[in-house]
Amino acid sequence: MLVPLVDLASQEASTAEAVLAAVAEVARESAFVLGARVEDFERWLARACGAEHAVGVASGTDALELSLRALGIGAGDAVVTPAFSFVAAAEAICATGARPVFCDVDPSTLNASEKTMREALDRARAAGIRVRAILPVHLFGRCAPLGPLSVLAAREGVALVEDAAQALGARDEWGRWAGATGDAGCFSFFPTKNLGAWGDAGAVVTSRADTAERLRRLRSHGAVARYVHAEFGRNSRLDALQAAVLLAKTSHLPGWQQARAQAASRYGAALEGLPLVLPSGPAAPAIHVWHAFVIRTERRDALAEWLKKHDVETRVYYPVPLHRQPCFAALDEPALPAAEEACATALALPLSPSLRPDQQSYVIDRVRTFFDA
């Protein structure tokens, strides 16, 4: 049985009629850049996150960079972000002219914690590095602890920017929604995200009117009027076609999220007792949206190879911690043991709303057989 990591084709088939109708309407109107559909999607996203404003941009990476720029982050500044993550957040920091300061993660959640970020802030301060923001990543669909992190940001006088690319609809233990707690919350709608476009797309949510205004300016070449440019921006507008695709899918999102949670629960129950670390769902009122189901085992590479031989696709998230990436070598960051351990042991099992029960049972059987051998 072939089991893909994400069965995108089956998921897209379930929405094809509505999406194609929405795309056809955009084509008839010939309104392809920004416009009413982008504004409709921005209103939906702001409501979904409990924020005052949403600003559509071209990608999740642009959302991160433009948010930092809108908050005044630039050359000579530093931003603390976790070392166990995709490169986008650190890349966006560098694109502003600032530098990342990498923090470790909590071994139980794989997210940055108040403690790990505070330690990185203290380390930077001792080295004479001016930190202007903290940028936690809500990894794999679970919120970083926004309550303590917002207190930390306020106490240190730094901005809080959330990378919520994998966490649309997630909530932390203090009842704070992903994206809506910080000065800006950044989302990606890459096709494999919980809500995916038909290409690259992103957005920023914020309850700061000044930040939203500057984001709208920055995404359109810094323009304040036609052919009048107050600052250097870029072309990072959300296409109307992508907004139409996303809007057509929003009604399906609750069901998709429920299917992900049910699949994660089945994995947890069936794999309990094996010599591996299972991801846990936080206690209410927190909500984990299960963008990925990531287990950890010292036998990670052997397990991945075994599953590949049995036609089960897996993914290593992430094989090299950011502070050990060649592009950041000049920063000479210290050891971050929890992040390094996660990079050596983490493996994502197949998970998507269209994962069939027989496919999941097959994956579970193959994993159990590997450890029983």
Structure overview:
There is one protein chain. The protein has 373 residues and is of the alpha/beta class. It is 40% helix and 13% strand. The strands form 3 sheets. It has a 7-stranded mixed beta sheet with strand order 1-7-6-5-4-2-3, sandwiched between helices. Strands 8-9 form a two-stranded antiparallel ribbon. Helix 3 crosses helix 9 (240-249), helix 4 (60-70) crosses helix 8 (209-218) and helix 10 (253-271) packs parallel to helix 13. It is globular, with a radius of gyration of 21 Å. The two termini are 20 Å apart. The model has no long low-confidence stretch (mean pLDDT 96).
Short description:
The protein is an alpha/beta fold. The protein has helices at 8-13, 16-29, 36-49, 60-70, 88-95, 114-126, 146-156, 209-218, 240-249, 253-271, 300-309, 337-345, 357-372, and strands spanning 53-57, 78-82, 99-103, 131-134, 159-163, 184-188, 202-206, 223-225, 228-229, 293-296, 346-349.
Q: What's the rounded overall pLDDT mean?
A: 96
**Anisotropy-based shape:** globular
Oligomer: single chain
Class inferred from helices and paired strands: alpha/beta
Number of β-strand runs: 11
Strand-and-helix sequence, N→C?
HHHEHEHEHEHEEEHEEHHEHHEH
Whole-number radius of gyration?
21 Å
Q: How can the largest sheet be summarized?
A: 7 strands, mixed
Tally of helical runs: 13
Q: Give unreliable regions as ranges.
A: none
What spatial order of strands do you see in the largest sheet? Answer: 1-7-6-5-4-2-3
Q: In what range is the share of β-strand residues? A: 5-15%
Q: What is the share of helical residues? A: 40-55%
What distance lies between the first and last C-alpha atoms, to the nearest angstrom?
20 Å
